[in-house]
Amino acid sequence: MKKRITSVLLALLMALALLPATAWAEDTTWSTDIKLDGDMVLTGTVTISGAVTLSGNGTITRGSGCTDAMILVPSGAKLTIEGSVTLDGTPSSGTASNAAAIQVDEGGTVIMNGGTICNNVNNGNGGGVNNAGTFELKGGTICNNQAVGGSGLGTGGGIRNTETGTLTINGGRICGNYAVNGGCGVFNYSGHLIMTGGVITGNYGGQRGGGISHRADGKGLFEISGDPVIVGNYRGGEKNSDGSITGGMTDNVGLTTSGKAKNFITIVGPMKTGAEVWVNIVTKLDTQTEIDAENNVHTYLHAGSYRVTADDVAHFNIDDGGEKFFKLTENNGAQKIIIALPEAGTTQYTVTVNLGKNMTSQSGIGTTLTRTVDANKTMEPILCEAAEGYYFPETYTVAETSGISVMRNANGHQIMVSGTPTANVTITLPDAVADPDYKQDDNKPVNPKPGHTTSGGSTVTGSTVTSAKTFDTGVAAYGVTALLSLSGMAWLGRKRED
After folding, report:
1. Are 125 and 153 in contact (CB under 8 A)?
2. What is the pTM of this model?
3. Is residue 466 part of a domain?
4. CA–CA separation, 435 vs 437, rounded Å?
5. I want to staple 182 with a disulfide (CB 3.0 to 4.6 A). Which of 1, 105, 208, 472 is the partner?
């Protein structure tokens, strides 16, 4: 008898383990910490109340009924995102959503220390995040989101920061996002943008600002210092399956409406080793005389109270291949950085990079990439990532050649080719190798694959909510089928014993 009871209980447990993620049946308020242990489907907006930490390991996806923001952070609320949580905006019904994955209202706060926000499509502004409050990106990834609205909409593929918003980027990655009307990675619309770190790369779309579009309208600010990287972003183009962009033009930071005050980048502190910022210059200054008489209207970099040095300015480059370059000047004790014409007969060098196997690049197209660089200028870096299941081991080394070096990041998933060439140079990258620790089921690369889910149940711990209020009919039917099947297996086992 005990054996029969044990067999039935085992069948029940196995059936429960086979149940897929459950779905929320209605809008929900989170007022205590949420720790995911599995996956979750939303059929309505989750509203944050008070201070809530979202952590754990699992994927939250957009259900067919969730056509507004997946998570709303109203005034007075604070959301902290930790761990390996993925907020996947892929609509289960196949139709586009009408809101960002996360909506931050004025007075609301979000701190993103880890996790991923991906695959959300907004028929308006702000594909991944629409921020009117405070959003701080310290870690994690915002990738493959889209802003596809019509006239006057469709800005901020990764993040849109409004005039009441403060967006701080000091870590993490914003990559592979699309916006039909510009600001494909980030659109700063008269808000306060502070960038001291992080990587913005591989974003693309229409209009201006493939990486960042900054529109001050006389009151917005874009302050920069530290070691941010803004490279490999495009205006126009089409995204390939490997993450590279076909067509279009390089457009990293677009400073829109250049005739308006404060429509520039302000250097507020020292730029550090590793910082690379590329700016798309749309200047109307055609002669050296015009440049010498420049009156701040066409100043794309601005020196604030911090005393900028030539070393700081050296971390900034021009998207158009060096037809113009930055020049630090003094005017009655006040600093300004203006756009200067290059001297006639400027020497140029060609940097050719041959990609090895099992790697992709978001900074270029194809297996052979080239950069044309003026003498004494730093090339736009080429960022390469190992394909899924591969990595760059600690023994991965490439000798520095004519000022161009190859650096590997700490976890071995990325390498960067950069430097100031002293001659024409060709770099051949060795192949990425198979990762011995890679497992298909729990692969967690530095850039989590959009839509990747982690197997597990639907238990949510650390919250007053421990399960969904209801589950879909299909889910229930699946569980019943599994239960009947396994109960039958247990019955056959008893017959054999009898």
Report:
1. yes
2. 0.69
3. no
4. 5
5. 208
Q: Answer for the pair 192, 160: CB distance below 8 angstroms, yes or no.
A: no
Q: Which residue type does 353 have?
A: V
Q: Is residue 331 over pLDDT 70?
A: no
Answer yes or no: is 48 within a domain: yes
Residue 135 in domain: yes
8 Å CB contact between 172 and 195: no
Return the residue matching tokens 């009898």. Answer: 498
Which of 395, 419, 434 lies at the terminal end of a domain, its last residue?
434
Is there a single domain that holds both residue 96 and residue 54? Answer: yes
Tell me the C-alpha distance between 240 and 324, whole Å: 31
Count of the separate structural domains present in the chain: 2
The H-assigned helical ranges of 27-150 are none
Count the neighbouring beta carbons within 10 Å of the beta carbon of residue 13.
Answer: 11
Neighbouring residues of 39: CB distance < 8 A, sequence distance ≥ 6: 20, 21, 58, 59, 60, 61, 453, 454, 456, 458
Strand order in the sheet with 348-354: 368-374, 348-354, 425-428
